[in-house]
Design goal:
The chain has 569 residues and is α/β, with parallel strands linked by helices. It is built from 13 helices and 23 strands. The longest helix has 34 residues.
């Protein structure tokens, strides 16, 4: 259909030249602003036109849960400790620092532009843009530029290719709709060449004003009342959370109102998705276009007593939606591999047939968009989350965190720590940092220390090696003979208090086997010694234990596994 920039020279036929060129698809990246992971459920077009036609990444995390640093990582393919964009404003972040460091000389936009792509940005660039620069300033790498300069849905200005255009408060001036019209017009005008669109609407960021046509949507809806909502007991958490008061009735009412407005504002973004799909289909480019939908960071809506905001390592702020459709992408599939926002740039570079610069920390996840992705044990084992508590009124201290499929491990500059078993405690209610096996803490701390210092290719090599070291042996087994809370004699009768835990070891190792209650308090140590390879059985008397949920964990120098058991006396 297109995608070959042909220069016909003497003695070179059109056919032979075209055959030598790599296929280069269109790329559209849609980045919402402050979108929490759960709210995408209220975007029907996103569901039917992208999710059901593509893949959803269940383990997508950003590096810094904050607008500016996150967007810098998208553009450069680096962790924030390498972009040096740590906050939204000077002296530690923002547009001016990004520009002054020379980062605009080499971004995913400049790489793709040099490869023959037509590049365009619509919406939010970086916090603080254009700052003290001339308002008509356009960064390098963009063939067309529609950069917004204020965070408003009405009454705002856009730098449209070096000309300042003002928009008012008419329904047709609604920011998301304006960006959608510009983006679809760009697509129609550039169907003869490959294009890259970075589309960044303001929704659902505060003041989350809905389009007039959506202002009555979702009547009576309330924010999700998750187990972590207005968390009653935060004694396990660091001091900055313990200082937060319980939410009042007025607080909850405000959260509910904000939640409804956020969902309402997303409906125009959902309409935008349909307009993009319809336009691509009309010019026969839909099957040759990758569309990525995500957010710059998540958002708290009352979880852990946090009425609003981001800047935390909890899943509400760091665990984001990532949904992709495109050529060769399987339909309706969920991918569990870990991906971060620094992975977009190398992925898009691979699509364009260019090599990403050596400074890039991220990894192309193009292989994950196929029917047979690489095994998880060859991929990134987890995500690095960072935050620098330097901005005014920032209540969260500086932190670095490691999020894996099993754990969220957080280290604060204050010396405090958190550790959550996210498989058994998905809402991160009970930190186990005080009771966890020291070997496990040490392993997580070592992985975190490597990642927070890594740069370039070193981030990839280390991650794969760590995954191989922490993977379970193929013939390891852990089970118990009493998983059922009801005995054959009926409820209330505990006929067999003797419980046996079975496990097998492929090699001789030092083994620690402990039981913990739901609060992470250690109940008893069953094993703490060197054991030979082979099958092992540990029997203990559970008769003196109260009814409830318990966890037992086996830990060796090379792996750790946790299981849950329910006991009814």
């Amino acid at each position: 259909m297109k995608h070959y920039n042909l220069v016909i020279a003497a003695m070179l036929s059109l056919t032979s030249f075209a055959a030598a060129q790599p296929h280069r698809p269109n790329i559209i990246l849609i980045v919402a602003d402050d979108l929490d992971n759960r709210s995408v459920a209220y975007m029907p077009n996103l569901k039917t036109l992208i999710a059901e036609q593509g893949v959803t990444f269940s383990n997508y995390f950003n590096n810094v849960p904050l607008c500016g640093p996150s967007r810098a990582s998208i553009l450069r393919g680096q962790f924030a400790h390498n972009t040096q964009i740590q906050t939204n404003q000077l002296p530690d972040g923002g547009f001016e620092k990004f520009r002054d460091l020379g980062h605009e000389n080499s971004t995913v936009a400049t790489w793709l532009q040099a490869a023959g792509y037509r590049t365009a940005l619509f919406g939010k660039y970086l916090n603080g843009y254009p700052a003290n620069q001339q308002q008509t300033y356009v960064p390098k790498g963009w063939d067309e530029w529609y950069g917004t300069m204020e965070g408003h849905f009405f009454n705002y200005d856009i730098n449209e290719n070096g000309k300042i255009v003002s928009y008012g408060n008419r329904p047709e001036d609604y920011e998301t709709d304006v960006l959608a019209r510009h983006a679809t017009d760009f697509i129609k005008r550039n169907k003869a060449v490959p294009f890259f669109i970075y589309l960044a609407p303001f929704a659902p960021h505060s003041p989350h004003t809905p389009a007039p046509r959506h202002q009555n949507a979702f009547p009576g809806i309330t924010a999700p009342r998750l187990p972590s909502f207005n968390e009653s007991n935060v004694g396990d958490k660091p001091q900055w959370v313990r200082r937060l008061p319980l939410l009042t009735g007025n607080d909850v009412a405000t959260i509910d109102l904000n939640y409804r407005e956020r969902l309402q504002s997303l409906l125009a973004a959902d309409d935008m998705i349909k307009s993009l799909i319809d336009t691509l289909a009309a010019i026969q480019e839909l099957d040759d276009t990758y569309i990525f939908f995500t957010s710059d960071n998540g958002f708290h809506l009352g979880e852990h007593r946090i009425a609003n905001g981001k800047n935390t390592a909890y899943d509400e702020a760091a665990h984001l939606p990532l949904i992709v459709r495109g050529p060769g992408v399987p339909k309706g599939k969920t991918v569990e591999h870990f991906v971060q926002n620094l992975d977009y740039a190398p992925t898009f570079a691979e699509f364009a047939g260019v090599r990403a610069p050596s400074f890039v920390d991220g990894r192309s996840f193009a292989p994950l968009l196929k029917d047979n992705p690489p095994p998880i044990n060859t991929w990134r084992p987890g995500a690095l989350i960072e935050h620098w508590g330097k901005e005014t009124n920032d209540r969260t201290p500086t932190l670095q965190a490691l999020r894996t499929a099993d754990y969220l491990y957080v280290e604060y500059q204050t010396g405090e720590r958190e550790l959550y078993d996210v498989r058994n405690d998905p809402y991160q209610l009970r930190s186990l940092h005080a009771s966890a096996d020291p070997t496990l803490i040490s392993q997580l701390a070592q992985q975190l220390d490597v990642l927070r210092k890594c740069a370039g290719g070193g981030c990839l090599t280390t991650a794969v090696e760590e995954k191989k070291q922490s993977e379970l042996p193929p013939n390891f087994e852990l089970r118990q003979n009493y998983p059922n809370p009801f005995s054959p004699l009926g409820r209330g009768t505990f006929s067999n208090p003797a419980t046996t835990i079975h496990f097998s070891l492929p090699v001789s190792e030092h083994v620690t086997l402990k039981i913990f209650d739901l609060n992470g308090q250690e109940i008893k140590t069953l094993v703490q010694q060197n054991l030979p390879a082979g099958e092992h059985r540990v029997t203990f008397d559970a008769g003196g234990m109260a009814s409830g949920v318990y966890f037992y964990r086996i830990t060796t120098p090379t792996f750790s596994q946790t299981r849950k058991a329910i006991l009814m006396q």
